[in-house]
Design goal:
Blueprint (H helix, E strand, L loop, with lengths): L2 E4 L2 E4 L5 H11 L4 E2 L6 E7 L4 E5 L31 E4 L4 E4 L33 H11 L4 E2 L9 H12 L2 E3 L2 E2 L4 E2 L9 H12 L11 E13 L2 E6 L7 E4 H10 L1 H9 L4 E10 L5 E11 L5 E2 L2 H10 L6 E3 L14 E3 L7 E6 L5 H13 L4 E6 L11
Parallel strand pairs: 7-9, 11-12, 14-16, 20-21
Antiparallel strand pairs: 1-2, 1-3, 3-4, 4-5, 6-7, 8-18, 9-10, 12-13, 12-15, 13-14, 15-16, 16-17, 18-19, 19-20
C-alpha cells in the first residue's frame, strides 16, 4: 500500500477520505510526495478520463524504492539511457521533459529522401543526440506506463485507457518550448452518436495544417486498420478515425514495406496484435493530408511493444504472471546492441533483467551483454539464448 504526503497530511491509499484529499490537492495544484523512501519523490495528479490518479513525474522512476509501483528499471538497460541529458532533458521545476528531435515539424523542400526514418545507425556515439520518430513513439509509450503489466490487468486495457494515458504523457513533454500535445493528434475513442462533435474537435486541432505561411507539420499517433491501395500509393486507414483520408505515396510505401518488414510480419501473424503508427503529416495539394515521415511499432493484445517473434513469446509468458513486469524499449538503439527486453520488478531477493540473445548475435553482442550484466550486480539476470533451445523458466 503506497503512502503519500499532501502538504501536512500523510495517509495511505486506503484512507477513508483519500478521494477527497486527492480532489482538493488537484484543485490546489499540490504535488503529492511518495513516501516509499527518503527523500520523498514528488508526484503529480492526473485526470485520466474523469478519474484522478497519482502518477510519477517524468523520468523520476529511479527515485522510488524498487518495491514501489512507481519504480522504473534502470535507464541504462534500455535504449533510454543514452538519450538522458541529451535528447531528453528534465526540467524538475515544472515537471516537463524537453525533447530534441531529429525530424522536422515544418514542411521541408522536396528531396529524394523517402518518408521513412532510416534504421538506427551503427555508431554508439550518435545514439543519444536526438530522438528519432521511432524513439519518440517509444518514449510516449514508456511515459504512459504502457510498458508495464501484471495479470491483474487482464481484460482491462483498451484504446480508451491507451488514448488517455498517451495524451497525459504528451502534456508533460515539450519541443522548443511548445507542449508536444499541441502538435500531437491521437484519435479519441470513436462513438457513432458523437461523430459530429469528434470530427469538429479533430478539425480544430488540425486547422494549423492549412494556414497560410510556413507549412507546419503535425504528429499523428494511432492504430493502423489497413493500407488500402489507391491509384498512386496507399490510403492509410487509422482506427477510430472513420472517413479521415491520409495518403502515403508509392515510393514511400515501398520504403515502408522494406524498413518495417518485421513489424508487418508480426502484425499479420496474429489477429490480436496491433500495428501502431506515428507519422508527421502535412497538407498536400487540394487540401489532402499526406504523410511526410512514418514509423511503425507492433504491440501485443495488451498493448505491450514487441519487435520480433522471440519478444512476442516472452511477452505472452509475462502477461500470465501476477508479478509486475516492464517491457524494455530500443529507442534509438541499433538492432545489433543488447538491451533488457523486460524486467521483473517483484522477484526476490532482487529484481531481474530479462535478456534475449537472438540467433544472429555475434561476439560483440555477447561482450556488450556481459558488460551490462556486470555493471548491475544488484539485479538478477535471466538469459534466453534462442539458438540453444527453448525459453528457460521465469525467475522466481
Amino acid at each position: 500500500m503506497r503512502r503519500f504526503r499532501f502538504d501536512s497530511v500523510e495517509c495511505d491509499e486506503d484512507h477513508p477520505d483519500f478521494a477527497g484529499l486527492l480532489a482538493r490537492a488537484y484543485r490546489a495544484k499540490v504535488r503529492p510526495l511518495c513516501l516509499c523512501r527518503e527523500p520523498a519523490a514528488p508526484m503529480y495528479i492526473a485526470d485520466i478520463g474523469n478519474q484522478l490518479v497519482i502518477k510519477r513525474m517524468p523520468l523520476s522512476g529511479g527515485g522510488h524504492d524498487p518495491a514501489c509501483p512507481s519504480y522504473e528499471p534502470p535507464y541504462e538497460l534500455s535504449g533510454l539511457g543514452p538519450l538522458m541529458g541529451t535528447a531528453i532533458q528534465m526540467d524538475a521545476s515544472v515537471g516537463t521533459a524537453s525533447l530534441k528531435l531529429d525530424f522536422s515539424l515544418s514542411k521541408r523542400a522536396a528531396t529524394n529522401r523517402p518518408g521513412v526514418p532510416e534504421p538506427a545507425g551503427e555508431s554508439v556515439k550518435a545514439e543519444g543526440r536526438k530522438l528519432s520518430l521511432r524513439a519518440l513513439l517509444h518514449f510516449l509509450w514508456h511515459e504512459s506506463g504502457l510498458t508495464e503489466w501484471t495479470a491483474h490487468w487482464a481484460g482491462k486495457r483498451h484504446w480508451w485507457q491507451v488514448y488517455h494515458h498517451l495524451l497525459e504523457a504528451a502534456g508533460n513533454m515539450a519541443v522548443r518550448g511548445e507542449s508536444l500535445s499541441e502538435r500531437l493528434i491521437i484519435p479519441e475513442p470513436f462513438k457513432a452518436e458523437e461523430k459530429t462533435v469528434i470530427e469538429h474537435r479533430r478539425a480544430q486541432k488540425m486547422a494549423g495544417l492549412f494556414q497560410q505561411g510556413p507549412k507546419r507539420l503535425m504528429l499523428l499517433l494511432g492504430e493502423v486498420k489497413e493500407f488500402a491501395e489507391t491509384r498512386d500509393g496507399r490510403l492509410v486507414v487509422v482506427k477510430h478515425m472513420p472517413g479521415f483520408r491520409l495518403y502515403l505515396d508509392e515510393n514511400a510505401w515501398k520504403s515502408v514495406q522494406r524498413r518495417f518488414e518485421a513489424e508487418f510480419a508480426l502484425w499479420q501473424s496474429g489477429e490480436n496484435l496491433h500495428l501502431m503508427l506515428i507519422a508527421t503529416i502535412g497538407s498536400g495539394k487540394a487540401g489532402i493530408v499526406t504523410i511526410d515521415e512514418i514509423a511503425l511499432m507492433c504491440v501485443s493484445e495488451q498493448w505491450l511493444p514487441i519487435e520480433n517473434a522471440f519478444e512476442q513469446r516472452l511477452v505472452e509468458r509475462l502477461t500470465r504472471l501476477r508479478l509486475k513486469s516492464v517491457k524494455g524499449l530500443r529507442f534509438n538503439l541499433a538492432q545489433n546492441r543488447p538491451l533488457a527486453n523486460a524486467m521483473l520488478l517483484e522477484t526476490r531477493p532482487c529484481p531481474h533483467a530479462l535478456y534475449i540473445v537472438p540467433p544472429s548475435a555475434d561476439a560483440d553482442f555477447e561482450e556488450a551483454l556481459k558488460d551490462m550484466i556486470e555493471a548491475r550486480p544488484d539485479l538478477g539476470a535471466w538469459i534466453w539464448r534462442v539458438a540453444e533451445g527453448d525459453m528457460p523458466a521465469m525467475p522466481g
